[in-house]
Structure formats: structure tokens, C-alpha cells
Amino acid sequence: MFVVEPEKSWDNFLIACITCNSYKNIHLGNKRRRGLEKRYLWPHLDNTFSAFTYHDDGRVDINPALRGDVHKFAIAIRKMAGILMSPAKAKKYADLGIAYDGASKRKEIWDSVLSSRKVYMANPTGDSVASIAKNAPKMGYFSIWMKVFEDRPEVRLALINAFKADPLCFDANSSPVKKGRV
Question: What is the distance between the alpha carbons of residues 87 and 95, in angstroms, rounded to a whole number?
Fold first, then answer.
């Protein structure tokens, strides 16, 4: 008989940072699991990388090309994750603090990734790609790495592999492709 240890259950791995897990618990911890996969966009089912637009000031917006239910599901996952909220869209004071904290942290990471890009562009070798792929997952923020290196498929392919991102969300040149509802 196969037994899943609680810390290795699907629910624990889907969203991993402390803030996001807290929001996830608020939304999912009260027995609202019926139809769960249909109410949100999920990284293991959908191409969530394509669902959002990442900005260099730390804001994360819903991709304006999303329509109908998919747009609604993107709003739901952003609301659940809280930290993806842009400060301008926070409606409650508590949400505003979380939004500013998230945007500030993403801005800080963006600047660090830009520094890595500058170093890479000065010496764009296979060893440089390997170094980025080795170190980027320690910092996290896959989406920021992918956005900053959007014109460097050799780096993006290495990042997809290093972050263990779903390869079905990207083509051979590292461009996002439709998976699931996105």
C-alpha cells in the first residue's frame, strides 16, 4: 500500500513560500476542495507562466490577453497567492502591506537577475549558462529569470531544466506554449 507522507503531499508542494502557503491555507484549509482544480490556474495543469505579466518594478499583472473563465481563474490564483497582487490593486490595508512586500522583494530579485544578465552578456559561454542554472534556483523567482533572459533561449532552456519547470509549457526555443487552459 502506498502512503503519502503529509509533508510530501500534493497540497504542500503546489505553492511553496511562507506567504503563499498562508494564503493557500486560508483559501483551501476550510474544506473548499470540491472543484478545486477548476477554480484556479495551477502550475501542474496550466501554463501559469503565460497567465501573468512580470514588470521590472516588481508588479505582476494578469496577462491582458486572458479572457472569460481563464481570466477569472488567474484572478483567483493571484488572490490566493496574495503576494502576486500589485499594490495599486490592493483593496484592504493588510493586503496593501503584503502587496508592497511582494513587489519590493520581486524588484530586489529583478535587479539581482539583471546583474547576472550583465555578467552573462559580457561572457556568453556554456560555462556562464551552467553557472546561472546552478545558482538561479537558490534565489528562486523562476518567472523573473525567464523574463529578464527572454531573448536568450540558451539560458532559458537551462533555467527550465534547473528549476524543474514543466517543459510542456515551453517550445524548443523556450517560448511559452499553451498548456491546459493557458
Answer: 8
Phi-psi region of 142 (alpha: psi -120 to 50; beta: other; left: phi over 0): alpha
* CA atoms of 58 and 99, how far apart (whole Å): 10
d(CA 127, CA 130): 5
Residue environment code for 157-167, b if the CB has 16+ CB neighbours within 10 A, otherwise e: bbbbebbebbe
Q: Is the dihedral of CA 28, 12, 161, 36 positive or negative?
A: negative
Q: Name every residue whose Cβ is closer than 8 Å to that of residue 165 and which is 6 or more positions away in sequence.
A: 49, 142, 159
- What DSSP state is assigned to residue 102? H
pTM assigned to the model: 0.76
From the CB of residue 112, how many other CB atoms can be counted at a distance below 10 Å?
A: 16
Q: Per-residue pLDDT tens for 42-85?
A: 877 899 889 999 999 888 889 999 999 999 999 888 877 755 66
Sequence-distant (≥ 6) Cβ neighbours of residue 177 within 8 angstroms: 47, 168, 169, 170, 171
Q: For 120-175, how does the pLDDT look when each residue is reduced to its tens digit (9 = 90+)?
A: 999 999 999 999 999 999 999 999 999 999 999 999 999 999 999 999 999 999 99
d(CA 165, CA 174): 11
